[in-house]
Design a protein that fits this description.
277 residues; alpha/beta; 7-stranded mixed β-sheet; 13 helices; 7 strands
């Protein structure tokens, strides 16, 4: 079972969440975006309120298949994408597939995420889950450990509230979620496997792209953006100073403004040039 939500009308906008949380990450932006677009989001396999089978080999490729299947289920042929963290990798695969055809993407916006394996700095819990004893550390998951990890990646002045940490923990632990965390974390080595494919897609695509990045994120902040500017032609980047890894939660108004400005500019560029005389 996959849980998904839709709201609003207009051009479809697919929101793709990160690890280890769920589509709830978009809740501050959900209604404001729904005033402009048809917003679509699901909890991916292994996350939130969707199925979390323990005998399943989780992969970013399968999660990309899932997003396309959701669009097909809703009758959506083309869409815009706004992604974060783990979702950035799923979105990169969608970008690569878009190059191969059929073309379904009208724009791509990345929030903080590991767009390049060489600039990704995993937190300690991720390193432990990746180890041969990952299954053991997954079962040791607790709200205090989650809170510690989250506080490390949020900005110093935008720390998560207790209610937000409670929500994160509820989503992770639903349906015995910690039992699959060590399987989900395999996306980190999977990123290395597909690194060249995904970087090439970002370099070759004609899909308009923007990065909105919390600069103080120790995982994928300013250092990731520096690499993005090195490798991606005409890089369109909005840096959010003093914001960490979860800009859509830490500074939703800033993210909304930066995203809408991106979309308004694209809409203006699509307007036909009026003929003189």
């Amino acid at each position: 079972m996959i849980r998904y939500w839709t709201a609003g009308q207009g051009e479809p906008l697919l929101l793709i969440h990160g690890y280890p949380t769920a589509a709830w990450d978009w809740h501050y932006l959900w209604q404001p975006l729904a005033e402009h677009y048809q917003v679509i989001a699901c909890d991916m396999m292994g996350f939130g309120y969707s199925a979390k089978p323990q005998d399943y080999d989780y992969s970013l490729q399968d999660q990309a298949d899932l997003q396309l299947a959701l669009l097909d289920h809703l009758g959506v042929r083309r869409c815009h994408v706004l992604a974060h963290d783990y979702g950035d990798s799923v979105a990169q695969e969608l970008l690569a597939r878009d190059l191969e055809g059929p073309q379904r993407l009208d724009s791509m916006c990345f929030l903080n995420g590991g767009l390049f394996p060489e600039t990704h700095h995993p937190v300690m819990m991720q390193k432990l889950l990746l180890s041969p004893l990952g299954f053991f550390f997954a079962r040791m998951a607790s709200r205090p450990r989650l809170a510690k990890s989250m506080r490390e990646v949020f900005g110093a002045e935008t720390q998560p509230a207790d209610e937000e940490l409670d929500a994160f923990w509820q989503l992770i632990t639903h349906d015995n979620g910690p039992a699959v965390m060590h399987k989900l974390i395999r996306y980190i080595p999977e990123r290395r496997v597909y690194r060249d494919r995904w970087v090439s897609a970002m370099q070759q695509t004609e899909v308009p792209m923007r990065v909105i990045d919390g600069a103080d994120d120790p995982v994928s902040g300013a250092h990731m953006v520096a690499r993005y500017r090195e490798l991606v032609p005409e890089a369109d980047v909005v840096m959010l100073e003093d914001i960490g890894h979860y800009p859509q939660i830490e500074a939703p108004r800033l993210v909304l403004d930066a995203y809408l400005e991106f979309r308004y500019r694209l809409a203006e560029q699509r307007q036909p040039i009026s003929q003189a005389g």
